[in-house]
UniProtKB/TrEMBL annotation:
Coiled coil: none annotated. Gene3D superfamilies: Aldolase class I. GO terms for molecular function: catalytic activity; iron-sulfur cluster binding; metal ion binding. Residues 14-224 form the Radical SAM core domain. This is Radical SAM superfamily protein. The keyword ATP-binding does not apply. The lineage of its organism: Bacteria, Bacillati, Bacillota, Clostridia, Lachnospirales. Keywords: Iron, Iron-sulfur, Metal-binding, S-adenosyl-L-methionine. The keyword S-adenosyl-L-methionine applies. It comes from [Clostridium] polysaccharolyticum.
Length: 319
């Protein structure tokens, strides 16, 4: 029987991208019942723009100038669009030749998006049934969809199930150039909600239906995509990052893992890590005067990869 020897990206060029996954604060204007308070309680204020740009320059020096990599800043939160210097930040990073993506609840006014869209390659918008104004959400999508690549996540609250289904159809009908997913939610990002069998089936059916008729007219250039399982007999199989975990293939003890070369994680306190899994030591803090960025892969010591889909979607190989 053939043996798995590597997990790679479907497209080789993606291995040359470093994603800087940055949670810049936990300030948020929503209080979704399923979100842990740590993600919206507001005690980690936004990092000053001078600090973000100074650190960005160090990332550019190491990863772009020294290692020849493409840099992709991915901002999450909290709600990053509430940052008073957000447009200044993304404009500066865009003009420095970097790509930028964000996760957002889409609540900022359309005028804001009219400007921001020019600097954002990817925008992942989440529909939160307890707070989202659907008319505004659709207006925002239609404002940015021809400039940024837009993905919509419908957060499927079981108590507002039909509202979420209706929102998915309305968003699909009244926009184009988007991809869309119906996301199962967990209480505080941990304990799964009790969906009925009927609700689970409905989510699968609607997801399948909408994904079979996406209205995409522009070619999409991603910073991540499908992964590829590579076996010692030379055979390969394409797989989604999440499926690697579902199929329980996510054990790579002793393998080389490109965390720190394809992924940097920066938490709300400014601590810099190679990944979410915490297997490699913390690199330092964005304010440290001396920082040593990785130049080699990390050898995995964990029995199971615990960093979720983001960590899974990083190249790993046995030798
Ligand atoms: S646990 Fe960490 S080091 Fe190990 S394979 Fe996963 S991401 Fe890489």
């Amino acid at each position: 029987m053939s043996e798995l020897v590597a997990l790679k990206h479907e497209f080789e060029r993606i291995e040359n991208i470093i994603v800087v996954d940055w949670g810049v604060s936990n300030v948020c204007n929503y209080r979704c019942s399923y979100c842990p308070p740590d993600t919206h309680k507001g005690d980690c204020k936004f990092v000053p723009i001078e600090d973000i740009l100074a650190f960005s320059n160090r990332v550019v020096d190491h990863y772009k100038k020294k290692l020849g990599k493409e840099i992709y800043f991915l901002y999450t939160g909290g709600e990053v669009t509430l940052y008073k210097d957000f447009i200044t930040l993304i404009k500066a990073q865009h003009e420095a030749g970097n790509k930028i993506g964000i996760s957002s609840n889409g609540s900022r006014e359309v005028e804001f998006w009219k400007e921001a869209k020019h600097y954002l390659q990817h925008v992942s918008l989440s529909y939160h049934s307890e707070f989202t104004n659907i008319d505004h959400f659709i207006d925002v999508i239609n404002e940015i969809k021809d400039t940024s690549y837009v993905h919509v996540n419908i957060m499927m609250h079981p108590d507002h199930f039909q509202q979420c289904i209706d929102a998915a159809y309305r968003i699909y009908e009244e926009t184009d150039e988007i991809t869309i997913d119906l996301q199962v939610i967990t209480k505080n990002f941990q304990e799964p909600y009790d969906y009925s069998d009927e609700q689970r089936q409905k989510m699968l059916d609607v997801s399948k239906e909408l994904n079979s008729k996406l209205k995409l007219h522009r070619e999409r250039i991603g910073y991540r995509g499908l992964m590829k399982l590579v076996y010692d007999d030379g055979s390969e199989r394409l797989i989604k990052g999440g499926e690697v975990i579902t199929e329980k293939l996510h054990s790579w003890t002793g393998w080389k893992c490109n965390v720190g070369l394809e992924l940097l994680v920066i938490d709300m306190q400014g601590n810099i890590k190679r990944s979410w899994c915490g297997d490699a030591p913390v690199i330092g803090n964005i304010k440290d005067e001396v920082l040593e960025f990785p130049t080699e892969p990390h050898v995995c010591k964990k029995e199971w990869c615990t960093g979720g889909v983001t960590d899974t979607m990083v190249t790993k190989y046995k030798k």
